[in-house]
Design goal:
The complex is a heterodimer. By secondary structure, chain A is mainly alpha-helical. Helices cover 63% and strands 0% of the residues of chain A. The chains are: A mainly alpha, B alpha/beta.
Chain lengths: 260, 166
């Protein structure tokens, strides 16, 4: 039970945090179609997060609600991958010209969607029937997210010198953070043992295949990675998550029990 | 007098989707079942996209339509099996076309995700709902609502929405 709750929160927090990040483009998209596309991706992600939080609330019982889980937990209680909370730019040097770099957004969505397409597909066989049902729905949605982000990755990578360089810089910056996908984590291992979760190692070769094929088409180079392995899924986050949560949670905290 | 299951179907027959008011919830495949449960009649609906903002409205609409018809029934949300555009009726698809939205193709036969991604996006022939030409191109994978993509007709030059297979 507790293993299932921890794992469901991890999935839900991933969806919510990326949904919030992507939504920062709303009203700022480079072209109208992209503004709308990212808002749509955000809606899907926040919708998935809601279904998962509702499931956690039902399992926990008491006065837990989806809103309490989204708005009244603090940074160290969030279980999302560090990759998803990073701002829309790399280190503020080199090719990062401003606080919103579209290549960073696209590469992040591509790397995560490629994982989730495989994971949602596998989770349709989860021992938790409610999670299996959410997985079947989410798989349909992430398939479009992956196709969308992959298309843009290829357009940027195989585009102009400028778009290629920025896509490569975004990839060099973000790929090391994907090491977290494959790192061992007690909560995940417990959920795998309970049949609720799927061992991500079994999906790694397929993920590599999707990434390598897209990078080849995009004429991008896969950087060698190593070094620090992020631990967002255990609650140890970068300094960026606190700012994201502060913005997302401020209204609910200023007016607890408010209705709008 | 007791309410019969047919009465509930009849009351909800013409209840339209809040976003696309030319098509009914039954034709969209959202209204799944009317059944008698332990505490009386139940209307079963299956949500579309996880983030579709219309779902809350749809549930409210079903509830108030039942109330206005003097029917007491509970609204139950069922996630599995997941909603699919394949449940849309032929009459419903025709109404979409007449409204200017290209109706969805059938969803591809279940294959695995790696296969889905590995092959290029199928050059699905989406005929223009305005002039019927199949000389059309996708301009964005996402449109004005979660369920639609943006297309453009290269013959009549009109942009149009395509209801995506889901």
């Amino acid at each position: 039970m507790s293993a299932a709750i921890d794992y469901l929160l991890h999935l839900a927090d991933n969806a919510l945090v990326l949904g919030q990040r992507n939504a920062e483009w709303c009203g700022h998209g480079p072209i109208l179609e992209e503004d709308i596309a990212l808002a749509n991706v955000s809606l899907d992600l926040i919708g998935q997060a809601r279904l998962l939080y509702q499931l956690v609330a039902a399992l926990k019982g008491g006065n837990t609600t989806e809103d309490r889980l989204a708005y009244f937990r603090d940074t160290h209680e969030f279980r999302n991958y560090t990759l998803l909370e990073l701002p829309h730019h790399g280190p503020l040097s080199g090719y990062a010209h401003a606080s919103l770099d579209y290549a960073t957004t696209i590469v992040r969505n591509f790397l995560y969607s490629a994982l989730m397409a495989l994971l949602w597909e596998a989770l349709q066989k989860s021992a938790n029937a409610d999670l299996a049902a959410i997985a079947a729905k989410s798989l349909k949605e992430v398939s479009y997210h992956l196709r969308y982000s992959r298309d843009w990755l290829v357009r940027l990578g195989d585009g102009t010198d400028e778009s290629h360089a920025r896509a490569q810089a975004a990839l060099d910056h973000l790929l090391p953070y994907t090491q977290e996908f494959w790192a061992a984590c007690p909560a995940e291992a417990a959920a795998v043992a309970a049949g609720v979760a799927v061992d991500l190692q079994t999906l790694r070769a397929d993920w590599d295949g999707i990434v390598d094929a897209a990078l080849a088409e995009a004429t991008l180079r896969r950087p060698e990675i190593g070094g620090y392995v992020p631990e967002g899924k255990t609650g140890v986050h970068s300094e960026h998550l606190g700012f994201l949560l502060a913005e997302m949670q401020s209204l609910a905290r200023a007016h607890p029990n408010g209705n709008w | 007098m007791t309410t019969r299951i047919e009465d509930v179907w009849a009351a909800l027959e013409n209840l339209a989707d809040p976003e696309i008011p030319v098509i009914s919830l039954r034709e969209l495949g959202i209204l799944r079942d009317v059944r008698s449960g332990p505490d009386g009649l139940e209307v079963v609906i299956t949500p579309t996209y996880s983030g579709c903002p219309a779902m809350g409205q749809i549930e409210d609409d079903v509830r108030s339509t039942l109330e206005n018809s003097g029917i007491s029934a509970r609204v139950v949300t069922r996630l599995a099996p997941a909603w699919t555009t394949d449940w849309m009726t032929e009459a419903g698809k025709e109404k979409l076309r007449a409204y200017g939205i290209a109706p969805p193709h059938r969803t591809p036969a279940a294959g695995n995700v790696v296969h889905f991604i590995g092959k290029p996006a199928p050059a699905a022939n989406v005929p223009c709902p305005h002039c019927g030409s199949s000389h059309t191109v996708v301009s964005s994978h996402f449109g004005s609502t979660a369920c639609k993509a943006l297309y453009k007709c290269l013959d009549c030059q009109e942009p149009f929405d395509y209801f995506k297979p889901y």
